[in-house]
Amino acid sequence: MIDLFGADYSVYVRAVRLALEEKGVAYVLHPVDVFAPEGPPPGYLDLHPFGRIPALKQDGFTLYETIAILRYVDEAFDGPPLQPATPLERARMTQIQSILDAHAYRTLVWEIYVERVVKPRKGGAPDEVGISSALGPARRIVSALEALASSGPFLRGDHPTLADCHAAPMLDLFQKAEEGAMLLKAAPRLTAWLERFRARDSFQTVIA
Questions:
Q1: Nearest CA to 24 among 96, 77, 94?
Q2: In this predicted structure, what is the pLDDT of residue 39?
Q3: pLDDT above 80 (res 171)
Q4: Burial letters 110-120, b for 16+ CB under 10 A, else e
Q5: What is the dihedral of CA 131, 11, 39, 71, to 10 degrees?
Q6: 165 by DSSP, 3-state: which?
Q7: Which of 153, 164, 176 is nearest to 202 (CA)?
Q8: Is residue 105 located within the same domain as residue 44?
Q9: Which residues are CB-neighbours of 89 under 8 A, at least 6 positions away?
């Protein structure tokens, strides 16, 4: 049994949960709200010294950082492999994950989705200047991911990989913003992939 710590709304917690569901690994999600006024709950910094989410614990073994957790989940448990067989394809998978972490997360989720969707939902006004400034980088990100997406049913071919688990939560939120939906229309492979992945049991369990 895996103990996973984090918030169910977090794209990174969702990425790990998708991998666990795809592998068929049982887990318990322990809610951790790092944005609470009082900060992370007592003791959480023992699991993640930087106070972020997710963190994983199993039989006294603890692990943090999403990419490390994803690889551990795939390699430590039985179930369908979530990493490609060849070095080139594993490198492409990791390239997509790196793009998501280094470039996509802040731009697509915080600067566009949160501003356009979350703030108005809470009664606030979106930062229109910030959204406009984010569109150029967002267009570049979508173009890069579209170029790396294969023509198969998944991002890198015929089988889901950690790249699918990593990307689906971010792009799902991004498409809910009108700007995200507009930019994804110019990325037919990404759009078709996201629609297919949303129909998977793992996605329906974790996100829908």
A1: 77
A2: 85
A3: yes
A4: ebbbbbbbbee
A5: -130
A6: helix
A7: 164
A8: no
A9: 156, 157
Residue 181 vs residues 66, 82, 108, 112: alpha-carbon distances, Å = 26, 28, 11, 11
Which residue range is the domain that position 176 belongs to?
A: 87-206
The residue assigned the tokens 């039989």 is 59
Rounded to 5 degrees, what are φ and ψ at 78? -65, 170
Query: What is the domain-level CATH number for residue 181?
Result: 1.20.1050.10
Asked, for residue 81, whether it belongs to a domain, the answer is no
What's the pTM value of the predicted model, to 2 decimals? 0.97
Is 162 domain-assigned? yes
Cα–Cα distance, 183 to 191 (Å, whole number): 10
Residue 106 and residue 72 share a domain = no
Angle between helices 188-198 and 128-148 (to 10 degrees): 90
Pairing assessment for the beta strands 55-58 and 27-31 based on DSSP bridges: unpaired
Under a CB-based contact definition with an 8 Å cutoff, are residues 138 and 183 in contact?
Answer: yes
In this prediction, residue 208 carries a pLDDT of 74
User: Do the domain assignments include residue 149?
Assistant: yes
